[in-house]
Request: fold
Amino acid sequence: MATKGESTKGKIVQTAQRLFRKQGYGKTSIDDICRESGVKRGNLYFYFKSKEEVAQAAIEYAVSIHVPFFETLIADETDPLRKIELMIDGIVAYYVARGCSAG
Reply:
């Protein structure tokens, strides 16, 4: 079970990740992250010194989720080109399933 601090930090990171994805890093402010997560600015700065640190944590969180997903996708494939195709197909399926579009 996560401690209250771990839970708060996770809430900040997941909110930031969602906002960065939705509106971009440049258009997302610390105030946006605080408002959406329900975490006060002072509490956010207890865990992170800057927006850049929040972004780094969001990237690390995303990698921790996506790397195992990709490893599973390509685990049984030996052809390097086919591995790339499987990863691209996996990315497309992930975003299509969530209603995201690219262009």
The mean pLDDT is 89. DSSP finds five helices and no strands in the chain.
